[in-house]
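Deliverable D5.2: sample structural annotation.
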Amino acid sequence: MLSRGVKIKLFFISFLFGFSVFVWYAVYAISGADLKVDFLDVGQGDAIYIEAPGGNQIVIDGGKGNKVLSELGKVMPFFDRKIDVLIATHPDSDHTEGLVEIVKRYKVAALIVSVNADKDGPFKTLLEESENHGVKIIRASMGQSFELGGGAVLEIIFPPEGEFGFEDNSASIVSRLVYGQNSFLFTGDAPKAIENYLVSVYGGKLNSDVLKAGHHGSDTSSSEIFLAAVSPAHSVISAGKDNRYGHPHQSVLDLLKSIESEILRTDEAGAIKFSSDGNSIKIIK
């Protein structure tokens, strides 16, 4: 029979071993070599979590209410209370309300906003909370490029610099995330007119492996010429189940099928998660 002293020593050895395993798992989880892009299930809204190789974290839009908080809890370590960058693509509440909750509960370094940055409601609250919490506020402008670490780059491809009197959806920040040979295109609620403008400016450079379909799969977005230019292998539609808008619209689904893009929907599958090693993209089940 082991003595009490030996039992205590074995307990501490086991504890230290278990703790070291936890620490190394946590380090690996934060600083993996892959790029992670998760389209969170926030109902009728958008929220996208990006973790770059090396651990930098970006959240594009936050959905409505505070559901994004529980969704982030599923993809971030419980002890991690920092987010490097938030992006509010435009002022609509189904994109910005959740970002307010994130600013209140996480240490956020920077917030990138669209040219329509003077709105009332949740967007105004987001700006006020960001200022109160020392978050750096950056106006998005076409041509900006943000190094996320590990070779991942986020490019802002819309809107252009300056004030143009855009209505809110037309002012949506459109960004493209590039990691090695892989790319993701995020469109906010940009309508067809903006999509077609992007085609005129960038043409085939819009080509991306994954497309976040505009405006939750509404037929106000996803023009035929735009989808042809992007030619996504995967198209993600972020929408609420049985939403009152009828999103996604059948015409959009038909167009995506016609270009043989795999359609992935948060209203059907919940959160949709991708990982990339810079050469290939995997869907994480």
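Annotation notes: Confidence is low (pLDDT under 50) at residues 6-31. The chain has two domains: 1-30, 31-284.
The annotation will be released with the project's public dataset once the embargo ends.
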